[in-house]
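Sharing a chain and its predicted structure for anyone who wants a worked example. Both blocks are below, sequence first, tokens second.
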Amino acid sequence: MSAVYFLCSKKEIVYIGLSQNVGARLLSHIYSPDKPGIVRVGFIRYKYDFYATSIERHLIHYFKPKYNIKYESLEYRALSKDFNIGELGEKIKEKLEFK
């Protein structure tokens, strides 16, 4: 089971990643000097890896986090006509308490 995770500063999401072992991956980021100012983390688990990968790419395009420097080179495909990444993005901001 994969998870899309978020590293947050006080004001915004600064990194979005994907991991199958989200706990270990989050700890490695939290204790890394490469991403200072991380005050909050969050994640969403997905049953299917393909779906998680696609959601991660959509969220990187939506939020454009400053530490996801390669987001412009990611392949971007719509999940379906009914999928609304903006709606998911707003729900994530609400859960992470960004107003």
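Comments welcome. The CA atoms of residues 49 and 55 lie 10 Å apart.
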